[in-house]
Amino acid sequence: MNNWFSIFMVAIGGATGAVSRYSASKWMLRHTPDWTFPIATFTINVIGCLLIGILAGVGERFSWLTSDLRLLLITGVLGGFTTFSAFGLETFALLRRGEHWMAMGYVGLSVMVGLLLLWLGFVATTTLGNPN
């Protein structure tokens, strides 16, 4: 497979997924203005998990989901829509292989380290150069 073609497939899919995420979030937020629960992000993440599950199942069962289509749909569209779906698929793969402790560690560390680094980045950027 041509590397430039692969990059093009991911880019087209990524743009499609990102625009879809933006549009879906905007629509949901317009219809749930008083909610404090982050419904748009939650909904997009779980829909992404459903879609990547469907594509993974189709890819395992049928041969028409070529590597080009995987790049376009999974890496591109779903990667632009939500990376949470890839996280879910990777965790599911660990569970299917019987690596339960690895899966729990991956989930726990991803959430804890992600939140810690988010906090560190936030604190570092909001206190740098702040005279108070």
TrEMBL record:
GO terms for molecular function: fluoride channel activity; metal ion binding. One of its GO terms (cellular component) is plasma membrane. One of its GO terms (biological process) is cellular detoxification of fluoride. It holds the Pfam family CRCB. Coiled coil: none annotated. Na(+) is not transported, but it plays an essential structural role and its presence is essential for fluoride channel function. Keywords: Cell inner membrane, Cell membrane, Ion channel, Ion transport, Membrane, Metal-binding, Sodium, Transmembrane, Transmembrane helix, Transport. It comes from the Bacteria. The keyword Transmembrane helix applies. Na(+) binds at G79, T82. It is found in: Cell membrane. It is a multi-pass membrane protein. Fluoride-specific ion channel. Important for reducing fluoride concentration in the cell, thus reducing its toxicity. Belongs to the fluoride channel Fluc/FEX (TC 1.A.43) family. This is Fluoride-specific ion channel FluC. The gene is crcB.
